[in-house]
Amino acid sequence: MSGNKHLIYIPSTLKSVKEHMTPAEFISTESVRKYIQARMLRVTSNIKIEVVYDDMNYTDGKEIHLNPYEAAAYTKSNFDALLMLLGNAFHETLHIIHTDFEVCHKYHIGFINGKKVLYNSGEYYLYRKLVSDLVEDCAIEFWGKRQYPGTLKKSLEFADAVHYGYRADPEQMLKNGSRPIDILFSALVTFGIMDIVPEFPAELSVIKNMFNECKPLITAAKVAQKTADRCKVANDIFEIARPLMDDCMEKGEKCPVFDPIQPSTHNRFKRYNQNFSSFRKVRPDEYDLRVDMEALTEAAAKDEYDRKIDRRYSDQLVLSISKLQDDGLGPFHNTIDIEYIQTDLAKFATYREAYSKRVLRLTPKIKLLLKGLLAVVQREQDDTVRNLYAGNQYREPFRADKKCCAYRKALSDEADLFIYVLVDSSGSMGAVTEYVKDALTMFYEVCRKMDVPITIVSHTANDNIVTIRTLVDANMRSGENTGIEGFEVQGGTRDGVALSCAAEYLKFRREAQKIVIAISDGEPWHTCDLNITPELLHMAKIAGIKPSNTAEFFREYSNYSSADVKNVIRNRGIHPIGIALAPTMELANLLNLKMKALYPESFATDIDHLAKKLAKVLEKYLYD
Hints:
Shape: elongated
Radius of gyration: 30 Å
Number of helices: 21
Strand content: 5-15%
Helix content: 40-55%
Number of strands: 12
């Protein structure tokens, strides 16, 4: 299994996946995300925005974060789930168009149009945010339903109806023990967005009077076109509800949070992210969602098909590792844990954002590395053409359009070269974490642009558990490979166990040449809680360990990882290349002397030249 360019779908299986796809599976596919993003780009007059799947709905002015599973939680069909997700996305896009986040931010800290407002101390900050979010949501919903007819309006109305269909009324909230401030703001949200005036029980006469005072203010805020004007209205509502806020603060209670009114709407304020001043008048975007459903369902079914293959592959790998754990690790008593960081939506959303910024920052260096490798490709092409004209015979087929005999025999063939990068993520790597991320990012982008399949994993050991974190996986047909940002350091290492896992992984690759690159800043080391068994004593005797006491035995046994690495390299039939990484070349050369005793091939590098050395490895084996 390799690459995503030449995918083969079995019609019968694809049909079965299509028929049995649940709303949650359908709505969380990459095809649906791209479809929603394309629709939102129309709304913003093609000013670039990014739709990111996360565990909550919010926008920072540039990206729209959506929780697809929330959209599927209260719907029973794929169409309804898509309509609700579209409504949530449209709501956040309206924030990008109609909400000036900078004005909101100044109001939160106690300023309106440069003038200080009363009660601007820090303890009122969250309440100001809550009122501001409430007013902004009411306003953008009003303008969205007024200016955008057709499917966009229907999606917004449908999402609102679903959200508020599950909202309790004031009487029910009172029975459930809700606080007065919770009941008041829930009623204001219901009125502001749904135009529904809730009924209050007699016990809540004070809350009812506050609500009636706020009603005309909410109506005024909905029709206000400027964010600054809406902030003035929010300040008036804040003053009316302030006695309830004071009561909460005296009791030490927290500020309420409502759905979809979330503090996250504006708390990620970054003025330079928002394209507020660039928006032009938007033409209404009329289209029929049902017309697009058939093609979208077909594309989503292929995504789900790929995801099922991913799950099957990961299950097979886990079983393979489990078998290795039972049969091949002997007395090491390690438990191997494989982590796929793509499974956590919230974390992966932050990784994606950070990775995009890192790639943007490193683009000039990536181009330089790529230029050097492409020069090697061009030189090989020229040599081949020259030899062909000289009448020399070639055992490998020649392609004038993409000439590289060992690299790729034909455009439709799989690459003959596969790169597996194994990164030490022990605690000692903490000082060079950012340098490692930069180097891995550059190397991954170069391999991706040259169509060389690459997998990157990190490994660490804590007690008896060896954790293998998959940062980039070439075997995955679906998903984003931006997990390099998930590189974290802790614990020690067991290189031998990590190499054993690499050998099991390589069974899933069909390339003729598989290169394993092991990056480390020290000798293999591991602290483990082992019982001194006769088996261990026998292994220690073979290794020449003669401990004087238990503490010495454990210290020596932790160094037994070196012998472990040698055994794995010899027995598993892999050829790893060790990279001794250190802050300076002097330290790296000293470390490399120890690495040479472990790996058949190794070299030293400092933190500034790691990416270049990785590219040199690729250059060496590209035509080998």
